[in-house]
């Protein structure tokens, strides 16, 4: 009976240890903090300059401001935005014209010329990249993050976010304040929460949930005490005061600083695992799907299924296009295009590796002939090694190789397949 009680007590003591061993390791935030907090503000509104930035500066926090660069507040208050950038705040890209999908009952405010459903993906890419250049003229930075307007990514001909990934450190896309798993976080699909008329208690509840999960929370505000989709200055101040009192628990910084750190940690974890990177989580909650929607493949066969454009094979150009003609099914090149041995082969002496010229024509440059050879046996190559005497060179004439393919006659090759290809494809005749 006594030993049974001891065994039961040992089992109870082992339960917390087993539970702790079963839990995945927490993400390592700087200085041992438990979570990261990103405070962002969209659309370049006046209330952000008047209320949000002064509140952040009072508490010593850095925020991220995503500018819609066509708004009058960017042009009229450019000096204020530059001062915010000098103060350490991030200026992010929020597109030029804030294109959103016009579908839905609450999208009647979308102008027809700014309807994402009628805008090609290539145009969205060009406008967003132009926005990066305009932001560089404001703050001089070269790295950016992007917030998708309205959470809409499907342009008229496909998802335009696939074209933007190389130009950004991270992209905000999807709905959700707290990141569920840092190991599986996709830097180009970071979910956010856009509070509207929220209280300080509501905002703090999201922050505490991120601390329990050991991940990060992303807020994207609009108006602060004004404009639209606003949060009261009191609620905003209550959130900042709570974060200020718990600096040892929460890391508050700009979104680009947090994502730089996250990507470094992910790369280090991947290297420690032998190059095996964890599967990326693409939670597109606003789009109603768990994975990114793909666009139809617009490249030539063998692309026959709707796949992302980056997986389509590029069409062949130049000589590759000539080799893939039906008249040349084996894909072989004519002899003239094959790699020929260099002019300085083993059958020719080193001293005779010079381009020949017709007899009687004066040399266009000082050659190694006896008439123009430097005095004292110096070398034309600039080295101290003298050229060998003219008499010691091989008297055998140098054979010149023809640049025409083997079997050339009348503009075609004797072999029927390549001749047919050259007649059908003018690019091949030009040697492209």
TrEMBL record:
Keywords: Signal. GO terms for molecular function: hydrolase activity, acting on carbon-nitrogen (but not peptide) bonds. Residues 311-327 have a biased composition (Basic residues). Coiled coil: none annotated. Pfam families: Polysacc_deac_1 (PF01522). Residues 34-153 form the NodB homology domain. GO terms for biological process: carbohydrate metabolic process. Residues 1-21 form the signal peptide. Residues 268-432 are annotated as: Disordered. This is Polysaccharide deacetylase family protein.
């Amino acid at each position: 009976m006594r030993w049974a009680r001891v065994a039961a007590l040992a089992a109870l003591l082992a339960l917390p240890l087993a539970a702790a061993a079963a839990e995945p390791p927490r993400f390592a935030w700087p200085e041992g903090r438990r979570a990261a907090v990103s405070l962002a503000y969209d659309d370049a509104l006046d209330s952000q300059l008047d209320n949000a930035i002064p509140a952040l500066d009072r508490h010593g926090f850095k925020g991220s401001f995503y500018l819609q660069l066509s708004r009058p507040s960017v042009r009229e208050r450019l000096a204020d935005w530059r001062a915010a950038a000098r103060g350490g705040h991030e200026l992010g890209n929020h597109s030029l014209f804030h294109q959103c999908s016009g579908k839905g009952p609450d999208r009647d405010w979308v102008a027809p010329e700014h309807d994402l459903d009628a805008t090609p993906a290539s145009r969205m890419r060009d406008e967003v990249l132009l926005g990066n250049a305009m932001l560089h003229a404001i703050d001089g930075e070269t790295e950016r993050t992007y917030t998708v307007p309205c959470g809409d990514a499907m342009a008229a001909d496909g998802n335009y976010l696939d074209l933007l990934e190389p130009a950004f450190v991270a992209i905000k896309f999807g709905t959700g304040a707290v990141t569920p798993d840092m190991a599986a976080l996709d830097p180009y699909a970071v979910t956010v929460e856009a509070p509207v008329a929220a209280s300080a208690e509501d905002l703090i509840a999201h922050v505490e949930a991120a601390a329990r999960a050991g991940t990060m929370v992303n807020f994207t505000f609009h108006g602060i005490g004004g404009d639209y989709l606003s949060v009261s200055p009191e609620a905003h101040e209550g959130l900042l005061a709570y974060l200020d009192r718990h600096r040892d628990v929460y890391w508050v910084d700009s979104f680009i600083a947090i994502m730089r750190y996250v990507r470094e940690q992910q790369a280090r974890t991947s290297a420690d695992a032998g190059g095996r990177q964890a599967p990326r989580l693409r939670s597109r909650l606003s789009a109603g799907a768990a994975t990114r929607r793909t666009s139809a493949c617009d490249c030539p066969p063998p692309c026959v299924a709707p796949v992302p454009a980056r997986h389509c094979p590029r069409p062949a150009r130049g000589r590759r296009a000539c080799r893939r003609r039906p008249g040349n099914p084996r894909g072989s090149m004519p002899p003239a295009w094959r790699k020929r041995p260099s002019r300085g082969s083993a059958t020719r002496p080193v001293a005779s590796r010079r381009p020949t010229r017709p007899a009687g024509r004066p040399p266009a440059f000082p050659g190694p002939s006896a008439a123009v050879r430097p005095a004292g046996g110096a070398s034309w190559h600039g080295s101290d090694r003298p050229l060998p005497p003219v008499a010691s060179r091989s008297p055998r004439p140098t054979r010149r190789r023809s640049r025409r393919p083997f079997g050339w006659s009348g503009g075609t090759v004797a072999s029927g397949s390549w001749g047919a290809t050259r007649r059908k494809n003018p690019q091949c005749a030009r040697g492209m």
